[in-house]
């Protein structure tokens, strides 16, 4: 990330916008992330992106084995500009590829399940970065996901209905776990480099014709 470009684009961003971006960046985290496996409803996909943004989750990992991840602009309301979406759709087994990648980065892999004998989300303890997996709307996570997971979590249920809507489940689990992360003692904030990288990206989203401004900057830099 070029600090000179950040400063240049920043000249076109209002002070109020800069303050808001700094405030949001201070609460952003990559210590917790969300993984969606093979979901197919665009409304759910869009709602999950909004949830990630609302709770300061910077990265959303999307596994596409049978279904293609699509968003609904009427539901996402621009939240996709602020969340980094990572897609896994080119391997023979994309679920395994995603989990291997996350584990290599130090994440604990946690699979959500409707099974009521599984550990409750309220009891989860953060002792390392955590990736929380959610499965397709009808059947949940695949056997591959469960086999590769380090742990399972469930939302306690007390009614006749056995499970919640996917986007509701993600919102509830993410809200609970974000509070637990904040109180965990882990260093969950982004590094300065990560913040500046996102700051530049978000500045560009906040300025009209940012691509033209960047080309002008690079041209002048060359001179």
Textual characterization of the structure:
The structure is a single chain. The model has no long low-confidence stretch (mean pLDDT 91). It is built from 9 helices and 6 strands, in the order H-H-E-H-E-H-E-H-E-E-H-E-H-H-H. It has a 6-stranded parallel beta sheet, sandwiched between helices. Helix 2 runs antiparallel to helix 8. Strand 2 (59-63), helix 4 (73-76) and strand 3 (84-88) form a beta-alpha-beta unit. The protein has a single domain, classed as SPOUT methyltransferase, trefoil knot domain (Alpha/beta knot, 3-Layer(aba) Sandwich). 44% of the residues lie in helices and 13% in strands. It is an alpha/beta fold and 223 residues long. The protein has helices at residues 3-10, 15-25, 42-54, 73-76, 94-104, 143-148, 166-182, 192-206, 210-222, and strands at 32-37, 59-63, 84-88, 108-112, 130-134, 151-153.
Number of distinct beta strands: 6
Q: Uncertain spans, ≥5 residues at pLDDT below 50? A: none
The CATH C-level name is: Alpha Beta
Named at the architecture level, the CATH assignment is: 3-Layer(aba) Sandwich
The helix-strand sequence is HHEHEHEHEEHEHHH
CATH 4th-level superfamily: SPOUT methyltransferase, trefoil knot domain
- The gross shape turns out to be elongated
**Continuous helix count:** 9
Averaged pLDDT: 91
CATH topology: Alpha/beta knot
**In terms of structural class, how would the helical and strand content be classed?**
alpha/beta
Integer-rounded radius of gyration: 19 Å
